[in-house]
Amino acid sequence: MSRVPIFLDRDGVINEFPGCGKYVTSYKEFRFIDGVVEALARLYNAGYDIYIISNQSGVGKGLYSYEDLQAITEKMKEALSIAGVKIAGIFYCVHRPEEGCLCRKPNTYNIEKVLEDYPDVARGEIYIIGDDEKDIIMGKKAGIVTVLVRGGSADLCKGLDISERPDIIVDSLPEFVAQLGL
After folding, report:
1. Cα 152 to chain center, whole Å?
2. C-alpha to C-alpha distance for 146 and 168, rounded to whole angstroms
3. CA angle 55, 92, 23 (to 5 degrees)
4. What is the torsional sign of CA 43, 46, 48, 50?
5. Whole-model pTM?
6. CB of 158 closer than 8 Å to CB of 21
7. 3-state secondary structure of 5
8. Which residue numbers are catalytic?
9. CA–CA separation, 2 vs 105, rounded Å?
10. Element containing residue 7 per DSSP (H, E)
11. Tens of pLDDT, residue by residue, the chain (182 residues)
């Protein structure tokens, strides 16, 4: 079986959502959501290549440094590695929203770059899991299956008032993985 890419947002999907307008600025503030490490291990062992795509504009706003973000990322990857999870790639957009860069969600730049390496995988087999409307819009524009996780940005900050309807709505990544039968 060929490996299949799967895309995940970070805050609100992998780790606890820090709150509306707040950022995870150090690893001591980073807390995996219950069951997520095991869910990621199930995905990885089932043949999914795990990619993280996350807007981290707190760097561009000067609230924490790129080095701080990298330190959080390395500690997260270490914890996942212990559980047997290998992250295939991580794409952070550290620009402020008004900069209009290509890498900021809902732009599909990072997804399209990855999908070039998977020409034989049908887009209908590929998922994006996020907690914000930007994740859903990006997935729809890329033609992949969209999964909204409740309890994050869209839910807590916007009251699930989103214009793009996700294909699937779940309470957590572990719930989604269970729905896949993994």
Report:
1. 12
2. 6
3. 45
4. positive
5. 0.95
6. no
7. strand
8. 9, 11
9. 27
10. strand 4-8
11. 589 999 999 999 999 999 888 999 999 999 999 999 999 999 999 999 999 999 999 999 999 999 999 999 999 999 999 999 999 999 999 999 999 999 999 999 999 999 999 999 999 999 999 999 999 999 999 999 999 998 776 666 766 566 778 999 999 999 999 999 99
Torsion 103-104-108-111 (CA) sign: positive
CB atoms within 10 A of CB 81: 11
- Secondary structure (DSSP) of 115-161: HTT-TTS-GGG-EEEESSHHHHHHHHHHT-EEEEETTSIIIIITTT-
Residue written as token pair 């290998």: 86
Judge whether 135 and 141 are in contact, CB under 8 Å.
no
Which residue's entry shows tokens 């999964």? 147
Q: How far apart are CA 129 and CA 62, in angstroms?
A: 27
The number of beta carbons lying within 10 Å of the beta carbon of residue 20 is 9
The one-character DSSP state at 164 is S
